């Protein structure tokens, strides 16, 4: 009986975390003196706790350096960073996120940012957040509770 309870508890914890299916990948190339080419690809994903509304922003990257004849170096890196709760209380939440376009020469923001949407599955409650890095210090995180216009 104790084994069955442990199995049920582990299944409940497993259902508590959801991988958000809005992953993106972006790649870029750089040229170095001596005819070396480096291509770097980066992808982000989010792991969301449906009970607490805490989430992890995860990144994986791979860089490949080659010359005209062969691959010289392949490097990978990555990890997940815990982010704060979207809602203050525990409930049953849904989550979505998307990355902004990478910065360009006209960009005000440093390294770009991302947007997060979270909703309470047991109430008409939706919160949208935008998180950016302005290039001058820590990320700026602002969330807004959505209002629902009932007029037709």
Work out the helix count.
1
The percent range for strand residues is over 45%
Global structural class: mainly beta
Based on CA atoms alone, the radius of gyration comes out at 20 Å
Shape: elongated
Query: Could you state the order of secondary-structure elements as H and E?
Result: HEEEEEEEEE
Number of strands: 9
Number of domains: 1
Question: Percent helix among the residues?
Answer: under 10%
Average pLDDT score = 80
* Biggest sheet layout: 5 strands, antiparallel
Distance between the termini: 55 Å
Unreliable spans are 4-11
Quick description:
The protein is mainly β and 152 residues long. Helix content is 10%, strand content 53%.
Search tags:
152 residues, 1 helix, single chain
Structural description of this entry:
The protein is mainly beta. The chain has one domain (16-145). It has one helix at residues 2-16, and strands at residues 17-19, 24-32, 36-49, 55-66, 71-83, 93-99, 113-120, 125-132, 140-145. Strands 1, 2, 3, 4 and 5 form a five-stranded antiparallel sheet that branches.
Secondary-structure topology with pairs:
Layout (H helix, E strand, L loop, with lengths): L1 H15 E3 L4 E9 L3 E14 L5 E12 L4 E13 L9 E7 L13 E8 L4 E8 L7 E6 L7
Antiparallel strand pairs: 1-3, 2-3, 3-4, 4-5, 6-7, 7-8, 8-9
